Amino acid sequence: MSVRLPDSIRARLPYLLSRAYQRQLVLFAEHTRELDVSGREYAVMLLLEAHERLWQSQIAEALGLDRTTVTYLVDAMEKRGLAARQRDPADRRAHVIALTAAGTALLAELAPAVRAARDELLAPLSEPEQEQLRDLLIRLNQEPV
Hints:
By secondary structure, the protein is mostly helical. The protein is built from seven helices and two strands; from the N terminus they run αααααββαα. α4 packs across α5. The model has no long low-confidence stretch (mean pLDDT 93).
């Protein structure tokens, strides 16, 4: 038996944002299932594509993840050949993470599936509404000056 949520919950912004996020995670997983990549791994690959090399601490900070979580992500990605740890030339005690050719290839392979998941999520909205939603969320997530 399903419980109907009262409007006091269903209309709250945190609930609505959380539901949209959860739906996005499910759609991402469905559309990328054959490629066996998590949303977090995808985010790390996108970040590494944009920056040639990063420390794990920079990845953690940029994505809002715990450093231990990033260590596990990078370990898994390294085992699959998607990322590589290298000594930092500026600090021999530190390691930097770089995307490998296999990681770059997987990103290209993921693009259509990621677009399909996004399109399915946003299907109820018109193109101008989709742009407006993105713009509003960007504004909501900007750091205060």
